[in-house]
Write a structure and sequence with these properties.
The complex is a heterodimer. Chain A is of the alpha+beta class. Helix content of chain A is about 40%, strand content about 20%. In chain A, the strands form two sheets. A seven-stranded mixed sheet of chain A has the order 1-2-3-7-4-6-5, with helices on both faces. In chain A, strands 8-12-9-11-10 form a five-stranded mixed sheet, with helices on both faces. In chain A, strand 10 and strand 11 form a beta hairpin. The longest helix of chain A has 18 residues. By secondary structure, chain B is α+β, with helices and mostly antiparallel strands. Chain B is about 40% helix and about 15% strand. Chain B has a six-stranded mixed sheet with strand order 1-2-6-3-5-4, sandwiched between helices. In chain B, strands 7-11-8-10-9 form a five-stranded mixed sheet, sandwiched between helices. Classes of the chains: A alpha+beta, B alpha+beta. The interface between A and B is large, with 75 and 74 residues.
Chain lengths: ~450, ~475
């Protein structure tokens, strides 16, 4: 792999650290070292000594998927409470330690993964990694702390019961994945959150926190030897092997259905989605380009132009690929006034059909390739962004040289590929949820005629 | 376009606190070692001959740049009856010019791989792009062109008004909490135009026209009313040359006088104000309170910093007074905290908010909040609380160095709200210098209920009248 840019100083194996690979980031911004700690834990490291801080992101397999079926929200509650006291420190002492030393530590659980993020001034990095160790290996889950956080989460969940965006999303996932972990809300429900016991939290931490699925990225004012030592400090005492419940692969259900959830709001919130493509599929970039052209980030996608710019139907409309560990989706959302909801659904449907039939133009494809290549560097301009990117690349199993290979993969997509993927992704029916009081739009089951929007 | 309205519960503060400057040398007690690169020293500030200000913040770690233009105009500069006009014009600025017709700027960004957006507050309107470094001159050319070259037609204006109304639906119409926030602010500012929502009152938004927008544009979009901020992989000298070759060529087209808005009634303070917003969609009751307090620009020396420390110790994070007493110890609240909007051309706001636990009424929660505040006023904060707050805030200045976009926003907001580059750079020093006496004096003076409005968000009006159990 190529090596260029300012941080290309190879740190030869020191202190039992093995340097296996070095990859260059966009235009030389990010040279990645693969570090193996003395304890045998791998991390990807980017040295940036010019700012006196260290950022680390990590992830382990097993997010909300590991929640017991009747206790949605366990992972979320664990992520919200392992920083509420650990080891000898009760919640107040733990937070005091973080705040007195300006250590920022946060945990989140999404569907597939449990993630953590640490930011510390260089001067406090030993203490920071030690505090993380406490949370991962000796969380206290004291009753008062758990109840305090549970109360906060229940407050959020109560608010969500009349939030159109939350309702549209929950209804969509519930209908798309019945009897599958993906069908349950990551943050739980008012009922499930109330049922979770401290034993459930301990069980989750015991099963999920392990070295076998751990991915780590470190960025900042730190060398490989120090990184190795601190990784062992934070993660070395974790069990070698996670004990995860098997999660079956699943396809989204209810394609062609439309579910209207009644809520007295002036604007209807719409979510739609159908089968997508796996991250490791050779056609992934063809699909990625197609999605970008349909409804991806830039202010010039087909949906943005047709729904917003030409007709003023919505403030935002977008689509995205959602390659989960056990299911692949393409999904989108928008919000529009009640009396134009039917029109908006029709326009989205037409645009998807048009792209499925004819594919993108050569010009659109070239422009989008140029965008995806040109904008990649924008995801690597802060320590925290780099750390998050590098953990994601590891979770997706793309290889330490992925950043170098990415442009080639984008360039290799032909118009025929894009056309084929447009047909594959956009020709079928979708599951649609609408929350609000849309005029002339009603729920529709699978036997009804017409496409799904 | 996709607007971060600085309305509601202090989103601007979250940006500024995270961003808050970065003069590293000042945080030296926490940061020994050679890494004190004192980046602050390299921030450059120029004024071109046409009056346009340029701030350059070099950051050579990644080959990307953030380019922003900030106009010193916001919703508080609107003519009464035309609320929402500053924000509507911000949307219309994407409609193209004679030289670069509809969409060319956005299409170019969509080709080269750039991000773009814009936002409006009551004091400023800002547009930004992020691209790789080699496109900077071209960004400046586009932005200089649309400073005076905007072409608006009914064809592009009318659909955009619908877009803005959908934005209103999303931010306000669909969200009772946001409507309460509007009401609290409107009641807090009795006379100053800050009482208008940035997005506008809906009945006035629907009446905005192409002519209104163009008149506003011609009055305020001129180089002598603009600040360009560039952060990223460029030297100050390079950026200056590019700016002179692009922005420097734009002639002034309007005289910009001092920004004097009607002030609040004197003598102050006046009345303790309470209001209730009931909506069937409210599934979780809560309360929010705002106090009228000075901003960085209007405060006496040291006063804004003392308020920053006070608010941090009172209501930021789980070691704060409000969290410890109301959530951890008394178990009355599920959530509680405080915030301060430091950047504001005129008198600003300090906020306190809370969500009661089940079985606790809003009255009980408010009494408890008042108890915490009364204790702070009476006995002051402890030296430990003050020290912890100062340390955390100063560390935030170091973390801010990591993010060129945050830094660009920090300087842009400062220079469009009556503050200065020097003020931003010396913030850590001035925070360090805050004394316990100053913090406690600020609490006594500014946390006066007669300076405040308290709003209850409830499901129905009966709920707000529940008596103490």
């Amino acid at each position: 792999m190529t090596l260029y840019g300012g941080y290309g100083v190879m740190r030869r194996a020191l202190f039992a650290l093995v340097l296996l690979a070095l990859a260059a980031g966009p235009a030389g911004a990010t040279a990645i070292e693969r570090v193996i700690s003395p304890g045998g834990i791998e991390a990807w490291l980017v040295r940036q000594p010019s700012v006196p801080l260290v950022a680390m992101d990590f992830a382990m397999v097993g997010g909300a998927n590991e929640d017991p079926a009747d206790k949605a929200g366990v992972a979320h509650l664990v992520a919200s409470t392992i920083d509420e006291g650990a080891g000898d420190l009760d919640a107040a002492a733990y937070h005091k330690r973080l705040e007195d030393n300006a250590i920022e530590l946060s945990f989140t659980a999404n569907r597939d993964h449990f993630r953590g993020s640490l930011r510390t001034l260089t001067a406090n990095r030993d203490l920071a990694f030690d505090t993380l160790r406490l949370s991962l290996t000796a969380p206290r889950f004291d009753t008062d702390a758990v109840e305090r956080i549970r109360t906060q989460i229940l407050t959020d969940l109560r608010r969500a019961t009349t939030s159109p965006g939350d309702l549209a999303s929950d209804a969509w996932w519930h209908a798309a994945f019945p009897n599958h972990p993906y069908g349950r809300p990551v943050n739980g429900t008012l009922d499930s959150m109330a049922r979770i016991t401290i034993g459930d939290l301990r069980d989750y931490a015991h099963r999920v926190f392990a070295r076998s699925t751990l991915k780590i990225a470190i960025v900042g004012d730190i060398d490989a030897a120090t990184a190795g030592r601190l990784i062992d400090k934070a993660f070395g005492a974790l069990p070698a092997q996670a004990e995860l419940a098997p999660v079956p692969a699943a396809d989204p259900q209810g394609l062609g259905r439309r579910i209207v959830v009644d809520l007295d709001v002036p604007q209807s919130v719409i979510m739609f989605g159908g089968p997508g493509i796996a991250r490791n599929d050779p056609d992934f970039f063809a699909a990625y380009l197609v999605n970008h052209i349909l409804g991806g980030g830039a202010m010039s996608s087909r949906l943005y132009t047709e729904v917003r710019e030409k007709r003023g139907l919505a403030y935002g409309v977008s689509t995205g690929l959602v390659p989960l560990a056990h299911a692949q989706l393409i999904s989108g959302s928008t919000a529009t006034r009640a009396d134009r909801t039917a029109d908006t659904l029709d326009i989205i449907d037409q645009e998807m059909k048009k792209l499925a039939e004819n594919g993108p133009t050569e010009q659109e494809l070239e422009k989008t390739k140029s965008f995806l290549k040109g904008s990649y560097g924008l995801y690597f301009d802060t320590s925290t962004k780099i750390a998050a990117q590098l953990v994601q690349i590891q979770l997706d199993n793309l290889g330490i040289d992925y950043i170098d290979r990415r442009n080639g993969m984008i360039d290799a997509v032909t118009r025929a590929d894009a056309q084929r993927l447009a047909k594959r992704l956009l020709d079928g029916k979708m599951l649609v949820t609408v929350v609000g009081r849309p005029q002339g739009v009603t729920s529709k089951d699978l036997t009804a005629s017409g496409s799904g929007g | 376009m996709k607007v971060a309205h600085f309305i509601g519960r202090a989103p601007i503060r979250s940006i500024l606190l995270i961003a808050s400057a970065f003069a590293l040398a000042v945080a030296a007690h926490a940061l020994p070692g050679p890494a004190q690169t004192a980046q602050a020293a390299s921030v450059a500030h120029y004024t071109l001959t046409n009056g346009l200000e340029l701030v350059v913040i070099p950051d050579h770690r990644a080959p990307v740049v953030t380019h922003m233009i900030w106009y010193k105009v916001g919703s508080a500069d609107e003519t009464p009856g035309q609320s929402g006009l500053a924000h509507f014009l911000e949307h219309l600025m994407f409609k193209g010019t004679a030289k670069n017709p509809a969409g060319r700027f956005s299409q170019t960004l969509a080709t080269i791989g750039g991000q773009e957006n814009a936002f409006t507050s009551n004091d400023f309107t800002a547009f930004f792009q992020r691209t790789s470094r080699e496109h900077l001159a071209s960004l400046m050319e586009f932005e200089a062109d649309r400073m005076t070259g905007l072409v608006l037609t009914d064809e592009n204006v009318l659909p955009e008004l619908q877009v803005v109304l959908e934005e209103w639906n999303m931010r306000v119409g669909n969200d009772p909490g946001a409507r309460l926030g509007e009401q609290v602010t409107a009641a807090l500012y009795l006379n100053h135009p800050y009482h208008r929502p940035v997005i506008g009152w809906r009945n006035e938004i629907v009446k905005l026209t192409r002519e209104d927008a163009l008149a506003f544009y011609r009055r305020f979009y001129t180089p002598n009313n603009a600040v360009v901020v560039v952060a990223g992989d460029v030297s100050a000298e390079e950026a200056k040359q590019m700016a002179e070759a692009t922005y420097g060529k734009v002639a002034q087209r309007a005289a910009i006088g001092p920004r004097v808005r009607p002030g609040e009634p004197q003598p102050e303070p006046s009345a303790v104000r309470h209001l209730v917003l009931a909506d069937q969609r409210v599934a979780q009751a809560s309360l929010q309170r705002s106090y009228l307090v000075p901003s960085i620009a209007t405060a006496q020396p040291g006063e804004a910093e003392a308020i920053e420390v006070l608010v941090h110790a009172l209501g930021s994070g789980s070691t704060s007074r409000l969290y410890r007493e109301l959530i951890a110890e008394k178990g009355l609240a599920a959530d509680a905290g405080a915030w301060y909007q430091d950047a504001s051309l005129d008198m600003s706001r300090l906020g306190v908010y809370g969500t009661p636990r089940p079985g606790v009424t809003l009255h009980q929660l408010e009494d408890a909040i008042d108890g915490v505040i009364a204790e702070v006023i009476e006995k002051g904060l402890t030296p430990e609380e003050i020290e912890r707050a100062k340390n955390r805030m100063i560390a935030a200045y170091v973390y801010a160095q990591d993010n060129q976009s945050s830094l660009a926003r920090l300087y842009g907001a400062a220079l469009t709200t009556g503050s200065s580059v020097e003020e931003v750079q010396s913030r850590p020093e001035r925070l360090r210098a805050v004394t316990a006496e100053a913090v406690n004096a600020a609490a006594r003076h500014w946390l006066d209920s007669r300076r405040s409005v308290t709003g209850y968000l409830v499901h129905d009006l009966k709920q707000s009248e529940e008596k103490r159990s």
